[in-house]
Design goal:
- By secondary structure, this protein is mainly β.
- It has a domain of 65 residues: Thrombin, subunit H (Beta Barrel).
- β8 and β9 form a beta hairpin.
- It starts with a strand and ends with a strand.
């Protein structure tokens, strides 16, 4: 929680089973593997706790950052390691069994001229796929690194607020400039790009707001992006062509989740919407 605690609830009753208080707010969602739950705090401290009672198994101090992002990204499991993203823009791989650090890398690079570039936090949750880790910040950098060594494989000048979607030799993402991109997983080169709605008004002097874009999610042979402008858009993953557009009353407030052939989206009006 942003109120500096982690709580476990009974899934059937909602009853609180245990709670642990921290010295700093927690950022991103917890990651769970085996008997452990992993979280990162706003001061970049990394924690492992016992899933049964919240007992602290180990903790590792990170590099604090003067600027923080309210919604940080979540840790990711990579085999015997857990990879922590921090507010300082670092990715740190830690051995799950004992808290031993394997490597740390920094997401360098920012979009020049953007005020958001002063915030170094990683915002695109790390994604582990094919021996690689993909991650992004919100100030203009998406990168792929070797999961075993932490060495850079490639990086591109495109940020992301959400996890990328690697599949079939490609990496799909919505950039910090609201561009839907298909990258070549080998080297990060752009295969195609589609501009999504960006500003809430076309008049330059009134450009005070930006439409949030949630996704992408690949389902039913289409790439889906839910937008704050009130549309759920489907794209051909091969060409990038728009092939579907469905109304989202009130606009989207969350990314699509697909379960059992049904897509669920939370609207900005607070309604849970289901699409088939």
């Amino acid at each position: 929680s942003a109120f500096a605690f982690l709580a476990a609830l009974d899934a059937d009753t909602g009853q609180e089973l245990w709670r642990v208080d921290f010295d700093a707010p927690l950022t991103g969602s917890p990651a769970v593997q085996g008997n452990s739950v992993y979280v990162t705090a706003a001061d970049s401290t990394m924690w492992s706790l016992d899933i049964a009672d919240g007992r602290i198994q180990w903790t590792i101090p990170g590099t604090p950052s003067l600027s923080t992002f309210a919604r940080g990204s979540a840790p990711a499991i990579a085999g015997d390691f857990v990879v922590f993203p921090t507010q300082a823009g670092e990715l740190t791989a830690v051995r799950r069994s004992n808290g031993g650090q394997a490597w740390t890398t920094i997401a360098a690079g920012r979009r020049l001229g953007a005020a958001s570039a002063t915030i170094s936090a990683l915002t695109g949750d790390p994604v582990v796929d094919g021996g690689r880790i993909y991650a992004a910040n919100q100030s203009g950098r998406t990168f792929a690194i070797d999961a075993r060594t932490g060495q850079d494989i490639w990086s591109v000048d495109e940020g992301a607020f959400a996890p990328v979607w690697p599949v079939g030799g490609s990496v799909f993402l919505v950039s910090d400039q609201n561009r839907l991109l298909r990258l070549d997983a080998r080297d990060g080169s752009v295969i195609w790009a589609q501009q999504l709605p960006l500003y809430t008004t076309e008049r330059v002097r009134r450009r005070l707001g930006i439409y949030p874009q949630h996704g992408p999610v690949l389902a039913g042979g289409r790439l889906w992006v839910a937008s704050g402008d009130g549309a759920l858009r489907g794209f051909d993953p091969t060409s990038g062509e728009t092939v579907a557009q469905i109304e989202i009353p009130g606009g989207a407030a969350s990314g699509p989740i697909v379960v059992g052939g049904t897509m669920y989206i939370l609207s900005r009006d607070g309604a849970l919407l289901a699409y088939r």
